């Protein structure tokens, strides 16, 4: 029954390896922050997380440019 014991040991070793790999890969703050920046200013290419911030940015940094159509209904 040596193979049965080896199989169990191999499964435990693989589970531990997969857990370490997931732990080291899964919690990256930079990647999460970058994924949250979904709105991009068409003028200066800076990125914002939400439409409210995007509208505030656009009104303060680019007052002479017309407001983009996606920001028309957003309240700042």
From TrEMBL:
GN (gene name): ZNF706
InterPro entries: MBS1/2-like, SERF-like_N, ZNF706/At2g23090_sf, Znf_C2H2_type
Region of interest called Disordered, as start-end residue ranges on this chain: 1-32, 50-76
Protein name: Zinc finger protein 706
Keyword 4Fe-4S: no
Small EDRK-rich factor-like N-terminal domain span: 1-37
Comp. bias intervals (Basic and acidic residues): 17-31, 52-62
The UniProt record lists the keyword Plastid: no
PANTHER family linked: GEO09665P1-RELATED, HSPC038 PROTEIN
């Amino acid at each position: 029954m040596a193979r049965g014991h080896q199989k169990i040991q191999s499964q435990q070793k693989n589970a531990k390896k997969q857990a370490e790999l997931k732990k080291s890969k899964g919690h990256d703050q930079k990647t999460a922050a970058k994924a949250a920046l979904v709105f991009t200013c068409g003028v200066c290419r800076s990125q914002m997380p939400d439409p409210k911030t995007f509208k505030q940015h656009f009104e303060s940094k680019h007052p002479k440019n017309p407001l983009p159509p996606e920001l028309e209904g957003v309240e700042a």
